[in-house]
Specification:
Helices cover 43% and strands 21% of the residues. It is α+β, with helices and mostly antiparallel strands. Among the domains are: 136 residues, Neutral Protease, domain 2; 164 residues, Leucine-rich Repeat Variant, CATH 1.25.10. The strands form 6 sheets. Strands 1, 2, 4, 5, 8, 9, 10, 11, 12, 13, 14 and 15 form a 12-stranded mixed β-sheet that branches. A 5-stranded mixed β-sheet has the order 16-17-18-20-19, covered by helices on one side. The protein has a 4-stranded mixed β-sheet with strand order 28-24-23-30, with no helix packed on it. The mean pLDDT is 97. Belongs to the peptidase M1 family. Its cofactor is Zn(2+).
Length: 830
């Protein structure tokens, strides 16, 4: 198999001037045995003038190439590029036949054999630069073309692609041509999938998953969410859905949450729940469904020209997905979930050295390797937050008018930031370009600080100080403390903070309130602080704040205070102990518990204080479980309860059926949670874990067993796990690598894992060079020693970045993780 040269922006611009690509006709031979599949590609294109160019291809074996019927030397293929020299002006036909490799890392054509029944499943992941692992192509987003895909498969398989596939005879499939789409959006899947099909608004829909998961597929709920989103998008968008079908495939070992292929959306089958689920898990799945459908317009109908504008895809889909679920489903509080789970992801990323503007300057994204690193919390969550602020600033009606103009003017084409701003400007008198300069071309989060003062007998003053130069439109909420301890909200109105004014003063009626919450309803993207009187009110009455989204904003601000070393971790823990038992929103409860357990205890607190804090957190979860009859609350709290126990008997009696755990049923996934904790505590042996794995021959069981084996508290088990991850013969799939990494570094096993701290950086570097970007990213994030918050780790990591040459994915991951580690040390020392 050949390597791959990174495509530069300049090369893409040159090739776009040279060529127009008309169509791809692709045949995939997926019926053969072995580690490869057959790929035959015919490309029709026009050269605008005499030129030298190249087509991308990453085969195991290149069998033949012809250009306009003339054979070319297969030796022209080098580093993933097949050179086409002395092209004459005019139309051309390129024909390429090759054997292509199957993947275990969800790059190219992924092959998965289900341990539950031995059936094999295939699906493609062509995102960004992986299409040449499947077929020969001019692989850049602005060379859009039609795709006609056919396939040969085993006779009992289903074949899916971007348009409706028809079986012409057993094992032979054809499909009609798609409208023009980008190369990274071509998709194919094959296997004995279980399918749920239906028709809505005259369009065929399908929901597909592995047969072993068929009984767990919430087909009716997924259908309900899908059709609600489809109908809402047709209410607000002028352009109709642009493709001939809509399939959703829940696929194994996907290296993303989902992929928005036109007509064939691929989602992780982690969304097919085999155990009892929380309401938040359902809301998350619904939001992903809505997010991916939004891409049919944002990204598929109108596509970015180069990868500097990835936010035109992801920020819009993130914003629309969240908003549509809030407007059309039972999860009307979906923006609170966004604040709790997604916005913190974006704000954390924005404070690291690797931060970048939502819309970076094109010169700052010189190639595809650089661009790939920007698929992060900034391009998704911060961008969506900025769009929510833009919609508030413009007004929703003008915002949607601008979007519809954008779709109509660029349908089946490509667009840039300037195109988008031009389309918005047609419908507003506001200076959208100045807004974009302040919001989209800059980094970081403004900090908003309130100051409260008396004005006269009838009014009070609210001073809003900000340290940045962005304009903000927000709600500032004020509350009065009643004698019974409740908080009464005063009327609020939108407030504009001008871009260049560091302090905005509002004169408001009445006496100064007991509590001021800036950014009520979370309309803008900023860090917010509290005046002293407000903080004292929150310390005693946080959960008396009546609105869930307002409370989420407060909890989020408190989290920021801890991360910024302005609130001691111990004080935050006391705040949690006092108020979490009275918090009604389970998404907030889950996020707070995760922050305390995974960050506060394992990183921010001095290790000597961890045992006491662990016990206090376990006591808190015990209280939460014992004082509720709500099933969803118990499912939410139980993982932290299990993960903090130091009393094995409460788990062993649950497992053997002699005891219960607060009425929560013992299903497969919660059984593995308990087994993992017992493993960390030294209560299980390798042979006992083997017996558990044999009883759960599923993909989930295989991954859970890998976590537990890596968590065994003995030197031999650690050595085995390390060899599986980093050894010269390491070939773990992306999911099994992650699972093993997740089990390796328990805080309770600090002495046992200490020898691996010195090995981590050189071994991760070598692995990244061997196995490519996906595994490099996992090695830098999942396998990073998160529980070792020590100066020595920080120093060794910084030396590695300074003296070695990690691949881009590993460099970005280590840069972020080391910055988080440095932050933890600052918090600990404050």
């Amino acid at each position: 198999m050949t390597g791959m040269t990174t495509l530069s922006r300049q090369e893409a611009r040159t090739r776009a001037r040279q060529l127009t690509v008309h169509s791809y006709t692709i045949h995939l031979d997926l019926g053969r045995d072995g580690d490869t599949f057959g790929s035959t590609t015919t490309i029709h294109f026009t050269a605008h003038h005499q030129a030298d160019t190249f087509v991308e291809l990453r085969p195991t074996t290149l069998h033949g190439v012809t250009l306009d019927g003339r054979p070319l030397d297969v030796g022209l293929l080098s580093d993933g590029r097949l050179r086409l020299t002395d092209l004459t002006a005019g139309e051309h036909t390129l024909y390429v036949t090759a054997d292509m490799p199957y993947s275990r890392t969800s790059e190219g054509m992924h092959r998965f054999t289900d341990p539950a029944d031995g059936r094999t499943y295939l699906y493609s992941m062509c995102f960004q630069t992986e299409a040449p692992r499947v077929y020969a192509c001019f692989d850049q987003p602005d060379l859009k073309a039609t795709f006609t895909v056919s396939a040969t498969t085993p006779e009992d398989w289903t074949f899916l692609t971007n348009s409706v596939a028809t079986q012409t005879r057993p094992g032979h499939w054809t499909s009609p041509a798609t409208p023009p789409i980008s190369t990274y959006l071509m998709a194919a899947a094959a296997g004995p999938y279980h399918s749920h099909t239906f028709t809505h608004a005259g369009l065929p829909f399908g929901v597909h998953t592995r047969r072993s998961l068929a009984e767990h597929l919430d087909a009716e709920e997924i259908q309900r969410i899908t059709t609600a989103c489809y109908d809402h998008y047709h209410e607000i968008f002028d352009e109709p859905y642009p493709f001939d079908s809509y399939d959703q495939l829940f696929a194994p070992e996907l290296n993303a949450g989902a992929m928005e292929n036109p007509g064939l959306v691929v989602l992780t089958d982690s969304y097919v729940h085999r155990s009892a689920t929380t309401d938040n898990q359902h809301a998350t799945r619904a939001t992903t469904i809505a997010h991916e459908m939004a891409h049919m317009w944002f990204g598929n109908l109108v596509t970015l020209q180069w990868w500097d504008d990835i936010w035109l895809n992801e920020s819009f889909a993130e914003y629309m997905g969240t908003d549509v679920v809030a407007r059309t489903t039972e999860w009307t509080d979906n923006w609170a979930r966004f604040t709790t789970e997604r916005k913190t992801w974006g704000r954390d990323a924005d404070q690291r050295p690797s931060t970048h503007p939502i819309a970076p300057d094109p010169e700052d994204v010189p190639d595809t390797a650089t661009a790939l690193q920007n698929f992060d919390g900034i391009s998704y969550a911060k961008g969506a937050s900025a769009l929510r602020q833009l919609a508030a600033w413009l007004g929703r009606e003008d915002f949607l008018l601008g979007l519809n103009t954008h779709f109509t003017r660029h349908r089946f084409g490509n667009a840039t930031l300037e195109d988008f701003l031009d389309n918005l400007a047609r419908h507003t008198n506001r200076d959208v370009r100045q807004w974009a300069a302040r919001w989209l071309r800059t980094t970081g989060a403004d900090v908003l600080v309130p100051g409260v003062a008396d004005a006269d007998a009838d009014t009070w003053l609210l001073h809003v100080h900000k340290d940045g130069n962005r304009p903000h439109r927000l709600l500032a909420a004020a509350f009065d403390r009643a004698p019974d301890g409740t908080l009464a909200a005063r009327p609020t109105a939108h407030t504009d903070l001008p871009a260049d004014e560091r302090t905005t003063t509002l004169t408001l009626p009445g006496d100064p309130p007991d509590l001021v919450v800036l950014n009520d309803q979370d309309l803008t993207y900023a860090k917010t602080r509290f005046d002293e009187r407000s903080w004292q009110t929150l310390r005693t009455a946080l959960t008396a704040v009546p609105d869930p989204l307002t409370r989420v904003t407060v909890w989020s601000a408190a989290r920021d205070l801890v991360r910024d070393a302005e609130l001691p971790p111990g004080e935050y823990l006391r705040l949690v102990e006092k108020h979490l038992p009275h918090e009604s929103d389970n998404t907030t409860v889950a996020a707070v518990l995760e922050f305390v357990h995974g960050t506060l205890l394992d990183r921010y607190l001095d290790p000597a204080d961890r045992p006491d804090a662990l016990g206090r957190l376990h006591d808190l979860t015990t209280h939460l479980l014992a004082h509720t009859e709500e099933h969803d609350r118990r499912l939410t709290v139980l993982p932290t309860h299990i993960g903090t126990t130091t009393r094995p008997t409460e788990l062993t009696t649950w497992l053997d059926g002699t005891g219960t755990l607060y009425g929560v049923p013992l299903d497969a996934d919660r059984r593995w949670l308990a087994l993992r904790r017992l493993t960390v505590l030294g209560q299980l042996t390798a042979s006992e874990l083997d017996e558990e794995a044999a009883a759960d021959r599923t993909a989930n069981g295989e991954q859970a067993a890998a976590r537990c084996r890596a968590a065994l508290p003995d030197a031999a088990a650690k050595a085995r796990a390390w060899e599986l991850m980093f050894g010269a013969e390491s070939a773990l799939s992306n999911y099994l690598f992650s699972a093993t990494a997740q089990g390796f570094w328990p805080a309770e096993q600090r002495e046992l894992t200490e020898p691996y701290l010195k090995r981590y950086f050189p071994d991760a570097l070598a692995l990244a060079h061997r196995r490519g970007e996906t595994v490099a990213r996992l090695a830098g994030r999942q396998a990073f020693p998160h529980t070792a918050a020590e100066d020595a780790v920080l120093e060794e990591g910084r030396r590695t970045l300074a003296e070695e040459e990690p691949p881009p994915a590993l460099r970005r991951a280590l840069t972020d993780e080391l910055d988080d580690l440095a932050r933890a040390l600052r918090v600990r020392e404050a």
